[in-house]
Every structure is written in structure tokens, then in C-alpha cells.
From TrEMBL:
GO molecular-function terms, A-Z: ATP binding; UDP-N-acetylmuramoyl-tripeptide-D-alanyl-D-alanine ligase activity; UDP-N-acetylmuramoylalanyl-D-glutamyl-2,6-diaminopimelate-D-alanyl-D-alanine ligase activity
NCBIfam families (UniProt xref): murF (TIGR01143)
A Pfam family per the record: Mur_ligase_C
Stated name of the protein: UDP-N-acetylmuramoyl-tripeptide--D-alanyl-D-alanine ligase
Organism encoding this protein: Candidatus Shapirobacteria bacterium CG08_land_8_20_14_0_20_39_18
Subcellular location(s) per record: Cytoplasm
Pathway, per record: Cell wall biogenesis; peptidoglycan biosynthesis
Location (main, coarse): cytoplasm
InterPro entries assigned to the protein according to its UniProt record, in alphabetical order: Mur-like_cat_sf (IPR036565), Mur_ligase_C (IPR004101), Mur_ligase_C_dom_sf (IPR036615), Mur_ligase_cen (IPR013221), MurCDEF_CellWall_CoF430Synth (IPR051046), UDP-N-AcMur_synth (IPR005863)
GO CC annotation terms, alphabetical: cytoplasm
CDD domains to which the protein is assigned, alphabetical: SIMIBI
Catalytic activity: D-alanyl-D-alanine + UDP-N-acetyl-alpha-D-muramoyl-L-alanyl-gamma-D-glutamyl-meso-2,6-diaminopimelate + ATP = UDP-N-acetyl-alpha-D-muramoyl-L-alanyl-gamma-D-glutamyl-meso-2,6-diaminopimeloyl-D-alanyl-D-alanine + ADP + phosphate + H(+)
EC category: ligase
Domain of life: Bacteria
Amino acid sequence: MKRIIAKHQALLIHWWLTDKFPQQHIDNIFLYHPTGFKNVIRNYYRTWLVHPLKRRFAKYYLLFLKTFFGLKVIGITGSSGKTTTKEMLASILSLKGKTVYSFANIDPIYNIPATILRCRVSTKFLILEMGVEYPGEMDFYLWLAKPDLAVITNIYPTHTKFLKDINGVNKEKSKIIQCLNANNIAVLNFENRFLKQLKNQVKAKIEWFGNGSEIFATNVKINSNFYTEFVLNYHQKKEKMTIPIVGEPFVKDALAVISIALCLSINVNKIKQGLTNFNLSEHRMSIKKLESGSILVDDSYNNNPESAKKAVSTLKELSKNKKTILVFGDMLELGKNEIKYHQEIGRFISKIGVDYVIGVGKLSKYVVLNKRLAFETWDQALPALKPLLKKNTIVLIKGSRAMQLDKLVDHL
């Protein structure tokens, strides 16, 4: 009898928190215990009343806007580049009509309903960043907001602690395009082997970007202002483009954005203007000059195996004759393969040839060949880093938010 009652209680909780609400998030609700009477009351009020009602209202409000006012919904997912893609796209679409897009640094479970409710009848475009960490999250996002146009930037091993392996990552993220119908559009990276395999699983029209497709980049280079220049090749035409961010990986994000914009009949001049003026997200390959004369590349927002390799490659490209320093924070939520991925990055860094590597976190010892430069916290690493910062050096700080390397950036 107790088991039957518990089962019905679980079903009731799941129903109230809304259909498709991920089980891991339900578990997290019961694991969270705020301190202080006011915080407890506020948490219960928001968790059990405000958010469930907000989700339901957001879902049907969005359906109303799409049906009667022609609002276009663009969903963005992928293992990296989601936020940059979102910011670039918002900059371009804002030139065409009123555009609403996801807040930065907020869990999509709460971010997406809040973003939907910022729309008005005059809103033309809604851009939703749909990052997944747990199984079932994408089902919830799609229950809330089915996109008219969806983009997957790439598929790499991220959050494998919960999604098990790269196949689990692919299975969860690919749901965003498998829900599309023949009137919708899927924008996919032609260079990613997992995405190429989805070709026959999608009813929507597919627009490819990247090498081997009709939309690709050539002559990629970093100019003296640390902006990235490239030649856009699209449908047998060419156009010179500039993005105010450093590194070839961001060119791929730009190609995804250009593909979306072209699908929405936005002309190349507006695309160029939007890309030139987009707002660079904080702690993503931003360049700063330090008092010592050294150059700091701040990429402390996020860290995973693929983005780490690309960031280190960009560091080497920027260095020229300068000494290179890498401060590397642990890559998190990689599950049983976390040691293997850190060892692989260590070998990659050694092959690239970085002069100094300072690790931060419990797993950094697998990255740093010189174990004396491996520390558990950012403040322990600071005294080792400061003497290395001289006029002819460039330092990359690469980490996840949980490693608090943004605090290290602030202290420099």
C-alpha cells in the first residue's frame, strides 16, 4: 500500500511540475535545502507555485503568438557555441524585426519560460538556447516551445556524467530536429559526423554549413585588433566577413547563423552588419592587455574536451614569438571517462607546445606534466602565475564556471 501511495504521489508531483519535466530536476528540487525561514518560504513559493504556473502560461501564450501573429521560433543546441550563435543571430535578426532571446547564464528549465513571456504581439523572432545536461531535458523544452527552425552547432562529449557517452549526447540533442515537420528547417554542421548521420531521420528541409556544404569559410585569419576575418562562400557567391571575437571555432558559429539568416531571407549586408556589431558574451575568448604588458585571453566560462583543444590551438596561433601560458581548469561532468579526457588534453597541449601549463582542480594533475604547477583552487594558482606574466607573454585562462577562474581573471 505504501508503495502504491508513493507512486501516486510521484505521478501527482510530476503532473504539477508540468508534463515532460525532467526527473533529474525533480530530484534536485528535493535535494536543495535553503537556510533561513525567508529563503525556505521563497523557495517553496517559487518551486511549487510560480514556476509550474509560469511554464503552463508560457506554453499556451507562445502558441497564441505563433498562430495569430506569425512569431518565428528558433531553437539552438549543440555541445559548444550555443551562446555565441544566439548572440550573433539576435544581432542580425534585430535589424529585421523585434527579437527576443534567452538570458545569459540561467538554466534553460527556468530561462525558456521567462524568455517566452518577454515576447509581445510585435515580436517577430524568438531565439531559445536549448542546452541539455540531463536525459529528458530536450523533451521538456520541445513541450514548451517547438521551433520553426532549429540549429545544432555540433555534437561532442559533454555532460557525459549524465548522458553516459557521446551517443547519449547525440540522442538527446538530435530530438530538436526530429520533432520538425516538412514546413520547418534544420540547420546542421556538415563537418560533424553525428549530424551527417541524421540526414534520413529528419522530415524538415536541411540547410548544411561548414566545409563540404554550400556555405563555408575560407581565408580565415586574425587581424591586429584580435578580430577574426574570413571569406564567406555561399551558393557560389563570396563576401568578406569580420566577427569581433578571436578564433576559428567562432567562424563555425557565424556560418550557422548565416545559414539561419539566409533561410529567413535576410540580405548579406544586414548579416554582415549584425555579425560586426554583436555583443561578445563575457568570459568567452575575450582579449585583455594586463599592466605587465602581457596579453590575457579569457575563456573561463566553460570547458570541455573539444572547446579546450580549439582554445589551445587559438592560443598557439596568437602567440607568434610570445611565450605561451595556459591556466587550465577541470573539465566537469564527464563521468567515468573524466581521467581519460584530461589525459588526452594533456597530450594535445604537449604536442601543440605551450611553454607553461598551470592546472586548477583535482583533475588537473592529469593535464599538467609538471605536477608542481597543479593546484586545487584558483587562489593557490595565482602566486605561481603572476611571476610568469611579462611583456612578451600571452596567457589563456580556460575553465568552467565552477572552477571560478573568472575570479582569477578579475585579480589579474
